[in-house]
Amino acid sequence: MKALEIRSVTKNYDSITALEGIDLDIEKGTIEGLLGPNGSGKSTLMKSIIGLVKPDAGDIRVFGKSVLEHPVETKKLIGYVPEDPRLYEFLTAVEYLDFIADAYAIDVDTKEKRINEFLDAFGLKGRTNELISGYSGGMKQKLAIISSLLHKPRILIFDEALTGLDPISARIVKDLLHKLAKAGVTILFSTHVLAIAEVMCDQITLMHSGQIIARGQLDELQEQAKLSESNLEDIFLKLTGTDNLKAIVDALR
Ligand SMILES: Nc1ncnc2c1ncn2[C@@H]1O[C@H](COP(=O)(O)OP(=O)(O)OP(=O)(O)O)[C@@H](O)[C@H]1O
Ligand SMILES: [Mg+2]
User: Fold this and answer.
1) Cα(114)–Cα(19) distance, rounded to whole angstroms?
2) pLDDT in tens, 153-194
3) Is the C-beta atom of 16 inside 6 A of ligand 1?
4) Mutate which of 10, 13, 45, 208 for ligand 1 pocket (most atoms within 8 A of beta carbon)
5) Measuring CA to CA, which residue among 60, 65, 69 is closest to residue 77?
6) Which atom belonging to ligand 1 lies closest to the Cα atom of 160?
């Protein structure tokens, strides 16, 4: 059974088509990178998968279960980090994670153990009793990542979740994602850092104007872009038609 099945998903906001007939299947245990220019529909697609956005048409299934028909069951299977995580900043890190763990009905012993392990692994151990409002941007980001992992989700949806992390923390998260994928967790993450996508992803989906314009492993994308031996940045610019910016860049040099 596929971890994710997305069929003909369309979403409009007034005159803006955010998603236009998206079809995407993701196998269990895959790390899938979602790439595309600003406004291409990445976040809207991710929000549709976790049920925060209701598509106008189409169907999304998580391990065979429709997100619309089984909203609670499917949410339990997913861990999500939004692109602009909103935390309850008047709580301490421990209070916040405790609250999230309770929302997922994790038992007390497991909850305490996991919260401690994660805070330790992410280097937040010494700051756990301070209010989140006093945390740095990266520290808040780490907290959002931890809160997405507490209930041991089978699918992880990370919208730009590595942005703002220092190299050590980004490395910890990357290693963790690889380990989780090996253990069968399916990961869909968006990033604008193409170097991260290059090293992290088993497969890359490239979006543009609400559509999927290319999908495959790096060598397959090179073939589609007819750019042999090129890196992901060149492929991205060619396939999204943004290589006309090159003239501007050249002029500014
Ligand atoms: N709540 C909303 N109301 C109106 N328009 C929206 C809303 N959410 C998204 N859109 C529009 O849908 C399109 C896709 O937006 P989306 O946030 O999915 O893009 P994205 O690929 O995540 O971009 P970015 O790389 O900047 O995060 C954009 O044109 C955006 O303006
Ligand atoms: Mg986005």
Assistant:
1) 37
2) 999 999 999 888 888 888 889 999 999 999 999 999 999 888
3) yes
4) 13
5) 65
6) 27
